[in-house]
Structures are given as structure tokens and as C-alpha cells.
Amino acid sequence: MIITFPLGLMNWKLLLSMAFITLCSIGLLFTLHPGGGSRILVAVSIPPLAEFVKAVGGGRVEVLVMVPQGASPHTYEPTPGQLSKLGRADLYVMVGSGIEFELSWMDRFRDVNPRMRVVNASMGLELLRDDPHIWLSPRCAMVMVENIYSALVELDPEHEDYYAENRDRYLGLLRELDEEFSQLSSKARIRKILVYHPAWGYLCRDYGLEQLALEREGKEPTPRWIEQLIEEARRSGIKVIFTSPQSGSRGVEAIAEELDAEIVEIDPLAEDYVDNMHRVLDALREALGVG
């Protein structure tokens, strides 16, 4: 049996369908053109960059973090849900310093979303060999924030003044951090830090310190290497060993006992960047013998 509808009902159904399609098209246009009033969807590789983007973008941005809090950029694989949302992103802010996650995934991210703009947050910075943790120096972070600001202005020039005001406010916080680290370095009696995972090379470079790392090239320390580090730590007066939530710490307890040292965890990937770097400052004050 064939069911027929009155012509009037069919017209209403057609009109409703057309209206729905039109509304969807308008929504798509707002997504593609953030100047039209919708928020810009910005994807970032790691949590610290999320704070940088939110600080500059304010209410104009929504941030998608590809490596979530607690995960490791060395091993993490994005979920299907993340990849689906990435397909709608307007901008991708990559660290650009050689983190394994980006080396493994950026080409595939571009395939997922060919229209997405990509900015290298480390552009203009001098990179260290075999150390991707560039954001952990406030001096480097200031350059990264400037690069993020430029990318947002290019994407959404109508709100340049808004982004500039936000950038300047956040750069003020980073300059305060820079000054505090400089003062800490000038007062340090101990010039070396002992860490398990070598994440603090940029911080040490920019503030005149030296990092001794148990882990080398992603490999656990050998007995001979541990022996050498214990000897150097003794000579340097080191009484603190730093670990991180994302890396292993095999054998650290035995080394700490040998040195009569304290084990302190500091997080290189915390999203609350400014607050976290103040926590790092507090930990370093004790480690470097600054009262």
C-alpha cells in the first residue's frame, strides 16, 4: 500500500528541511570564520601550551589538548574522539622542538584536517640537541607566547587589540618568573641539579645551571653511569634528586640513600604553567642551597 500525504504537509516538511540545512550551513560558516563571532578551536600538543593559548586567546578560543594531563608525549596515541574533534580545528600550535608525539603524528594530523593552520611555537628559538622541553624556560615561553599571539591575529585580525592586551598581561607574569629564576641563580651555592629524566636543559641553559641526568637517550641508567653520577653529586653537594610523574624512577631510592638525598617530584607537563613554575622555583631553592 502506498501512503500519500496532503500537499500542504509535504510543503511544510520541505520548508523545515531547508531551514535546518540553512542553519547548519550558517553554523559551519561561523566555524570556518572565527571573526564572525564563534570561538576559534585551537589544538595543542601538550598541556603547558594550553595555558599559553588560553592566556592570549581568552574567551575567543576553545583549546583541544592532544596529549592530556598525566600522559607522556613519548608514547601517547590520540583517541578517535580527539582525531574527530581535530578535524574541526582552525589552528594547531605545535611545540616545534622535536617532541616524539609531534614527530610521529603531525603529518597524520594535517591529513585529518588539511585546512587547519599550523604554527611552530618555537620559531625563532635556538634548540638544544636531544631536548624537546623548550617551554620549561620562561625566556623561551615568552617567545612561544608571541608566536601564538601572531597566529591568532593572522587568523582573527578583527580582535588584534584584545589578543595584544591578553598577551601583554601574561608576558608580565612570565617576566616576573624570569626575574625570580635569575635571582635564584645569582644566589645559588650549588650550580648543578640531579634529575632522572633530562627535561630541564633549557631552564639550566638560560639561568646558568647544569643538569645531571640519570636517564640518557630514553634508556635507564647503567650501573657504571649511576656510580659516576653519585661521585659527581657528592663533589657538587647535591642533596635533592628530581623525578617527574611521566617518567620512570627505577633505582632512585637507592641513589638517594647513597647520597642521603631527598626525592622531589616536579612536573614538566603541568597545564597551570605559571603556578607550576613557581612550584619548581620553590623546589630549586632547596636543591641549590638558597635560603
Overall pLDDT: 89
| Overall outline | globular
Low-confidence stretches: 1-35
What summary fits the major beta sheet? 4 strands, parallel
Q: Give me the Rg, rounded.
A: 24 Å
Number of domains: 2
Give me the CATH superfamily of the largest domain.
Nitrogenase molybdenum iron protein domain
Proper CATH architecture of the largest domain: 3-Layer(aba) Sandwich
User: What is the SS-derived class?
Assistant: alpha/beta
Reading off the top of the CATH hierarchy, the class of the largest domain is best stated as Alpha Beta
The helicity comes to: 40-55%
Order of helices and strands: HEHEHEHEHHEHEHEHEH
What is the count of β-strands?
8
Specify the number of helices. 10
Ends apart, CA distance between termini: 90 Å
Q: The CATH topology of the largest domain is what?
A: Rossmann fold
- What strand order characterises the main sheet? 2-1-3-4
Q: How much beta, percentage-wise?
A: 5-15%
Provide an overview of this structure:
- With 291 residues, this protein is α/β, with parallel strands linked by helices.
- It contains 10 helices and 8 strands.
- Helix 9 links the parallel strand 7 (240-243) and strand 8 (262-265).
- Helix 5 runs antiparallel to helix 6 (160-187).
- It is globular.
- The termini are far apart.
Q: How are the elements arranged and paired?
A:
Layout (H helix, E strand, L loop, with lengths): L6 H26 L7 E5 L2 H11 L3 E5 L14 H7 L4 E4 L5 H13 L4 E4 L17 H18 L4 H28 L4 E4 L5 H6 L3 E4 L9 H14 L3 E4 L8 H8 L2 E4 L7 H15 L4
